[in-house]
Amino acid sequence: MLVDNRLVISLIRALVFGLGSLSILSLLLYFHGIISFSEGVRWLLLAEVIGLVALALWAWAKGRDDTLRWLAGGLWAGGLATLAYDVVRVPIAVSGIPVFKAISYFGTVLLGYDKPNIWSEAAGWLYHLSNGLSFALMYLALIKRPGAVTAMMWGVALEAAMLLTPYAEVFGYQRDARFIAISLGAHAVYGIVLWLALRQWMTPGKKLAAPSLWLGWLVAPVGIALVAANFYSRYADKLPPSPPPYLGPHLYITWDVPEPDRLAALWVLKRFADPSARFHFVPPFTMLTYGRPFDLPEAEIRRQSVTSATEVLLERNRLDTDPRLRSLAAMTHLAEVTPWMLPSDEDADRLAQKIRSVAAGACGNALTGACLEAVFAFIDDWYKNPSR
Description:
By secondary structure, the chain is mainly alpha-helical. It contains 15 helices and three strands.
């Protein structure tokens, strides 16, 4: 019977460790372009929550109070450790360094916004909290007897592992000594507070008083919400545009200037060369750290000395036999390479002006993924109706 119980405990630990890893796995899969961040959170984090609730219900039905106390202790301690991890970085944020911007970007990437708003901020900080709680459960599942050294090593190891991913590049952090010191230091604090909280909760024969217990459950979410509100009030309008929700092989990065050649080339790429293409727009001369450059100085498909980007794209994909695409390319050549000659071709001039007009009406002065569809719809209509 004792052997069977040890086996059950081992299986429970393995299950909790696996479920706890799903929260951060959604972010890792996003970094490697396997799925979008929203898909990862929707399926993996949901699976984690359902799995943990199912385990708790099973433990309650079987009368396994030890498992229920263990799960509750991990969540309680994880919340307090996450709060400590955030609080020690508040002075850094107040000093003028947007140290929490990755959390804001969690929300914008998850909900598909270019800039933080109150809804994306709430989503980002909730996801951040889910990671803190999940890491605590993973530590409890991995270490049978929590200690100060192992807890601190666990916290530091989490950040060391993240440094091996494109985390810093995607969220716009500079990998320097200051960044590494802040990150490792805050994670060490997470580990120490995790151990201190677990020591209070897990001491055999010790039962926390009800006020201390409920205060612990209340302090973490309220404290994190206050940290989030402070950061949002200081930096919501100052953060650069959000990273894209997808980082896979079909992501193309280009400047946000709405030029006819760029818009035509994007349309050709999406409609004929790569139907799975997704686009992300950045201000001119932004340093790229992810995605495939398109119609940029460093890109394979770009304007050259005597050819437009659209002409290069058509030639590379052997699409220059289509008469409508040749007409589109001729317009981009005149508009991009020899703009002083554009008025000499009435049809090309009209098409270029119309593309500019549609782009200006839908996008203003800067392209976004959302407004691009209006431009594509116009070019679709033009392509299907040769009389226009």
